[in-house]
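Input for the complex:
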Amino acid sequence: MSEPFQKSCLVICDVPEVLNRIQEEIQPLFAKKLILANNGKDATKKTEIQRFDLVLLHTKERSLLPDQSLFRVTQPKLGQEQTKVPWIILSSPAESPDIYAKFQGIIRSVDEGWTGQSLIPLLNNLFLDKRAASKALVDVNFINPFISALVEVILSMAEVSLKAGKPSMRKHTDPPTTRGDISGILSIQSDRFEGSIALTFQKQLALKIYSSMLAEEKETIDDDVKDCIMEITNIFFGNAKRELNKQGHSIQPSIPSVITGENHEVRPSVEGVVLSVPFGSDYGLVNFECVISVK
Amino acid sequence: MFDASTKTLVVDDFKTMRGLVKKALDKIGIKNITEADDGATAWPEVQKALAEGAPFQLIISDWNMPQMKGIDLLKKVRELEAVKNTPFILLTAEAEQSNIVTAVQAGVSNYIIKPFNQNTFQDKLAQAYKKHAGAK
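Predicted:
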């Protein structure tokens, strides 16, 4: 996990079991102790003596909703960007869509199935600048599904063992660390970030994958090999996406494309952080790259 | 179980995956195979086979295709009385819970998560066969 947030957070919750969950899941994300309130009156008192960086709410009490008194207390100079205190509602906005629309940007909601882990990207968005948030998103929980998916897909479909090298990160403006002969490319989109993914293979490895899968030898990268690498990219992405979406991301499906060219490099599609993981095999290298930019 | 004469339609926008499915079918003796590269090109094949009096007895389709997705092809097949009980298997690389629920509701016979091996492929086909044999 990244460093805990040095922020003060007011929790308003009148459901004991949800409060326990908040303390177990969310408290570890913050360096400071969460301030708890179990009703609107209690919460209002606390806002009178302390300034909060965030309000977390799970309650049925209508008076706490954003057009009511407590919300106004936490937004003393509504309209001046620097004074707005964000609210996160730990339940669906279905009951009051008009309020959510009116206070877009200040009030956010998460599904009932939230976890501490699933809230991290949202908290990063609130508290970090865009580049820091992009960098924070690409942690071990984000990387591992891609590494596992690639190793498993290549082993299962082509009977080739890959060994992951050390992951590295760089700015999108820095030169690529690896080159290859054929790349499968996909866009990656969620409600919180956008970017692209590339799997760049050396020729011998791509040809080996093709011959293992289709029982047909090739000496050059032709349309059949391109199709094969696109499908590998497609399956790899589908498998990684399934695991990432279990963590609370909402990554959309995407159709892959392919580029070829001896010793080419793939340029990042957006400005952000580029994650790179090289993989070795008996037949050459494949490099995974992912560039992410939070929205 | 399905045999050499089973008339089969394999639908995938990637030639590689069609090749892999054909290879897996070949290993269990199924050789009467027609290929289509999208749901949109598969549907006329389904109608044509029906018009010729020899409808497909097994359809294996990818889920995510550019023009007509596998789930939409499945829905069309299930709406057509003469072929609505045809065993229909969806291939997917995603297999998220919501997708599986959607496929089951649309009447899928079984689904195969990519990547797959020969044993899984055969098991899934056998399950689909049993399901439809039981329904007859």
